[in-house]
Amino acid sequence: xxxxxxxxxxxxxxMVPMGVVFAxxxxxxxxxxxxxxxxxxxxxxxxKKYHDWAKANKKEQEAYWKWRDEHRDVH
Length: 75
Prior knowledge:
This protein has helices at 2-25, 36-45, 58-70. It is an all-alpha fold.
């Protein structure tokens, strides 16, 4: 039983650093007014009429953040 518990603790200990690295690879996104020019560019590139960020549904917001991660140079 001690061997199983030891193997479990060791396995979990090896997985924790991978989780930390994974979390760092995926930035959290927070909307601010400085995002507005990029939001406008996103809508233009996707042939969508301008609408306020707050009125975008969750699916559209997620698509924007994915696009934004790929277009970090847009200001």
